[in-house]
Every structure is written in C-alpha cells, then in structure tokens.
Specification:
By secondary structure, the chain is of the alpha+beta class. The chain is 47% helix and 12% strand. It contains 10 helices and 5 strands, in the order βββαββααααααααα. The radius of gyration is 21 Å and the shape is globular. It comes from Notothenia coriiceps (black rockcod).
C-alpha cells in the first residue's frame, strides 16, 4: 500500500515500513565561478610574466625576481585565479601559486588571511578540476614556511566544509587502472592527503579542529 505524507514542508513516500527521503540537495552540483580578478589583471598585462615553452613543456618566464614581488598584492590574486579552468588563465594561476610559494619563505605567513576567501571561493565551485588544483595548492601552502600551517588552523571552519562533503568521493574502477590516481586527480584521496598534511604542519591544535569539521577523519600521527 502506497501513501504520501507531508511534514515540515517535506514529502515522504511510504510503502509499509519503508520511508524514502527527500531528493538530494545538490551538494555535489557545480557552481559556475564568477569572473576572477586574476583574469582582469592578466588581460590588462599587470603581471610581470610571460609564457615560455621548453623541452619540458610550458612554464612561466618571470620578468622580475619572484622574491622581490609584493606578496600581499600578487599571492592573493594568483589564488583567486585557481577558479579558472581555461587556458592560459588556469596555467598561469596554478603555476604562479606554486612559484610564489616556492620562493616566498617568510613573506607567506603574513598573507594567509588574504588567501582564505580565494581558497573558499575555489572550493565552493564544486568543480572537480578546480578542487584538485586548490588542494595541491593548499598542501604546498602549509609546507612553504615556518608557522604557515599553524596560521591556517583558525580558518579550518571556512575551508573544511567542502572537503567534508567530497571526502568519500573515490573512483571505484574495479580491476581497471584508475588513471586519475596516477595524475593525483582523485578528489577523495587528495582530500585525505591534504588533511594529513594539515595535521602534520598545523601544530597541536590541528587535529581537534580537523576532527570537528570532518568527523570521519582519523589522526595520521598515531603510531
């Protein structure tokens, strides 16, 4: 016997003791990214860089020494560009982030508060490519200098909700080869890897804050 019951503005279809809940709320659905400030600056030619080709592929040819760049100005712009999925914007943003993190040293930690909104915006696109690119950037970020990982801990509540949603999204390829794992494009694996990096570099308060936002996470520091 089938019947429909309405409660609290939600409709449930029942058959005997079976209850079918409401449809999915679209937590995994992609959100179209808004035009980035990074793209606007790039199109105006305001970045001191150009695209260079060599035997290993594309790379950024910087017109100034990276160490002399204004990190408060440029690093948030490159993180803002992580939302991009179209060449050359995607390439310049992604590579620019890693180049600046590699050479930033003590300049990075003071810029952390300015990076949170761009990071959150990138993750909130729910775009698989963007999420993977951002996770790799986050891993590099927390390992880029002293105290950077600890400085990020107060912002876990803004960053980790999306990671909690996608944490268990792994591709089950059976006996086949999961090529996404070879390219580090498996979101579930990358999220687990990123949370472990957060715990290792985030200091004594990292684990409890990760656990609060991602309840299924288990410490990687327990022997």
């Amino acid at each position: 016997m089938w019947f429909v019951e309405r409660a609290s503005n939600k409709t449930y279809t029942k058959h005997a003791n079976q209850v079918v809940g409401p449809p999915a709320a679209g937590a995994f659905r992609e959100r179209p990214p808004k035009p980035t400030t990074f793209r606007k600056f790039y199109e105006r030619g305001e970045f001191p860089m150009a695209l260079e080709h060599d035997a290993k592929g594309n790379r950024i040819a910087w017109k100034v020494e990276i160490e002399k760049l204004d990190y408060h100005h440029y690093l948030p712009l490159f993180f803002d560009g992580l939302c991009e999925t179209v060449h050359p914007y995607e390439f310049f943003a992604r590579q620019g982030v890693h180049d600046m993190l590699e050479h930033g040293s003590t300049k990075i930690q003071p810029v952390i508060p300015q990076l949170i909104i761009p990071i959150k915006n990138a993750l909130n696109t729910r775009n698989r490519q963007v999420i993977c690119t951002t996770l790799k950037g986050l891993q590099h970020l927390v390992m880029s200098g002293d105290m950077v990982g600890e400085a990020l801990v107060p912002y876990y509540r803004q960053i980790l909700p999306i990671l909690n949603i996608f944490k268990n999204m792994n591709i089950n390829s059976g006996d086949g080869i999961d090529y996404s794992q070879q390219k580090r494009q498996n979101i579930g694996d990358l999220i687990q890897e990123t949370l472990e990096v957060f715990e290792r570099y985030g200091g004594e308060d990292a684990f409890i804050n990760i656990k609060y936002m991602v309840p299924t996470y288990e410490s990687c520091m327990i022997c």
